[in-house]
């Protein structure tokens, strides 16, 4: 699915449907195996080797699996923060200490999410992170990320900027989701790296 930008840029909604359609054809075994490989690749990142606090998320559905990575980070003694969705689509945060620290939360008509069951630390807790692991649907050669469109992580990135902090931003994807170009708007920020089951690709800092 290459989009080289020489023609009119595809609509974000159309692209999201295309990427989700491919993901939805994956089997549970595909997702699990990708998650194991993704964890191995991510744990090779120097940023994660030296990070004391990592903001992450629990994958749902056909997203590349993150639980193996979360458990490995905890085993290293890393403080792992996970998001909890607020009614306005902003994110609160709580600590992950293992699978028993998660609760399945149904958000109205949206998909059920696994969120931290312990104390809520507030939306600003993410500003303490050395690394922020971001979900997404694709990333392009510039490091621009295509998200799901809910805006939650746009708020997170804006909050980091307002706080004057600069954690490393890393998006977790399947190999086929690293493409030539995705549409980007003025407020979109590039990530520093993408991790896929086959390896890591870094992007030049803006």
From TrEMBL:
Its cofactor is Mg(2+). GO terms for molecular function: 5-formyltetrahydrofolate cyclo-ligase activity. Keywords: ATP-binding, Ligase, Magnesium, Metal-binding, Nucleotide-binding. Pfam families: 5-FTHF_cyc-lig. Coiled coil: none annotated. SUPFAM superfamilies: NagB/RpiA/CoA transferase-like. Gene3D superfamilies: NagB/RpiA/CoA transferase-like. The keyword Lipid biosynthesis does not apply. The keyword Nucleotide-binding applies. It catalyses: (6S)-5-formyl-5,6,7,8-tetrahydrofolate + ATP = (6R)-5,10-methenyltetrahydrofolate + ADP + phosphate. Its EC number is 6.3.3.2. Belongs to the 5-formyltetrahydrofolate cyclo-ligase family. This is 5-formyltetrahydrofolate cyclo-ligase.
């Amino acid at each position: 699915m290459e989009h080289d930008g020489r023609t009119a840029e595809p609509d974000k909604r159309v692209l999201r449907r295309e990427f989700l359609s491919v993901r939805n054809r994956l089997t549970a075994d595909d997702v699990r195996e990708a998650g194991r490989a993704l964890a191995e690749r991510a744990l090779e990142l120097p940023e994660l080797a030296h990070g004391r606090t990592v903001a992450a998320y629990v994958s749902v559905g056909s997203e590349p699996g993150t639980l193996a990575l979360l458990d490995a980070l905890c085993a290293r003694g890393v403080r792992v923060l996970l998001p909890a969705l607020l009614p306005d689509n902003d994110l609160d945060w709580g600590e992950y200490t293992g699978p028993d620290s998660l609760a399945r939360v149904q958000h109205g008509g949206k998909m059920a999410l696994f969120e931290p069951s312990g104390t809520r630390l507030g939306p600003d807790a993410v500003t303490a992170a050395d690394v922020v692991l971001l979900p997404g649907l694709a990333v392009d050669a510039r490091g621009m990320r295509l998200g799901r469109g809910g805006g939650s992580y746009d708020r997170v990135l804006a909050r980091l900027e307002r706080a004057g902090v600069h954690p490393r931003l890393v998006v977790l994807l399947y190999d086929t989701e690293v493409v030539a170009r995705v549409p980007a708007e003025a407020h979109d920020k590039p990530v520093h790296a993408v991790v896929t089951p086959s390896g890591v690709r870094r992007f030049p800092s803006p």
